[in-house]
Amino acid sequence: MEALLELGPLLRTWRGRLQPGDVGSPFGSASTRTAGLRREEVAWLAGVSPDYVKRLEQGRAHPTASVVHALARALRLSEAETATALRLAGHADDLRALMPRRITPSVRRLLDRFPDTPVAVFDAAWTRLDQNPLWTALTGDPRGRGDREDNLVWRGFLGEPGRVRHPQPDQYRASIVADLHRVHARYPADPDLVSLVTTLRRRSEDFARLWGASDLGEHGNERKTIDHPELGAIELDCDIVTVQGAGLRLIIFTAEPGTAAADQLRLLSVIGSERVSARGGSTTGSPPTS
Q1: Boundaries of every domain in the chain
Q2: Are the CB atoms for 42 and 71 separated by under 8 Å?
């Protein structure tokens, strides 16, 4: 409990040094009433409730390692600050056993500097950590949700299919399970990863069957079709870039110049992610109500 009381003031200090414009706040001009980020903004970015952030800052809640990582991403913490937060939350028995989930400054710059290209950042287990506005507009997936639907493996077996279509669904599912199997072997003591795999094995017979094959592999590039509610089917190349040393993956959608898909992406960029996503039924740009 004493360590949690130390964590609270640090969280308040860390949110106080950021401005809403630094993180793409959806709260508009109301965010300028106080210096730094409000609890509501931190909650939206981390996928938790404002009341939970309040209790954390008061030392009255014990966050899991995944919540600490989500707060670290929301507050743009350094590696040393993230390690401190994990230690104070009681998750520092062996930090090397935890799968990396921190977005490095260089990867953050990539998100900021490719406004015309849909890009999202995933951890090694295929949980989406962040994305740029064009990714949101293309896929319709809201930012800051913070639940299992952010994990591609979960969505492939138990979740909503979303807008992305895979040309060979069975091959896709087999490859992404083999990839997760490899990551699980690398981080066998990560509690969130263990929970994900255990739940998938219990609830999905197909996942359990593929997992039982004990294949270890790596999911690679594949051409995708995105069924956009306003622009129709968009055929795009999907490239996966691994950030060595950070344990992160970037998924990048691109179109060959001069094609209909390139025109569709350009139109999506011009219209703007907020407008298109709102008309397409996404919750993008609206903070969660929880």
Answers
A1: 2-97, 105-279
A2: yes
pTM exceeding the 0.90 threshold for the entire prediction: no
Q: Does domain 105-279 match CATH 3.30.450.180?
A: yes
Rounded distance, CA 105 to CA 47, Å?
21
Structure tokens given for 229: 């509610």
Q: Report residue 230 CA to chain centroid gap.
A: 25
Please report the beta strands in the chain, taking only residues with DSSP state E, as ranges in sequence order.
119-123, 128-131, 164-165, 222-228, 232-243, 248-254
pLDDT per position as a tens digit, 142-170: 876 667 889 999 999 999 889 999 999 99
Which residues make beta-bridge pairs with 285?
none
Please state whether beta strands 232-243 and 222-228 pair in parallel, antiparallel, or not at all (unpaired): antiparallel
Architecture of domain 2-97 in this structure: Orthogonal Bundle (1.10)
Using CA atoms, how far residue 241 sits from 123, 205, 238, 250, in Å, is: 12, 30, 10, 5
Displacement of CA 241 from its chain's centroid (Å):
15
Contact 10, 71 (CB under 8 A): no
Q: Is the pLDDT of residue 80 over 90?
A: no
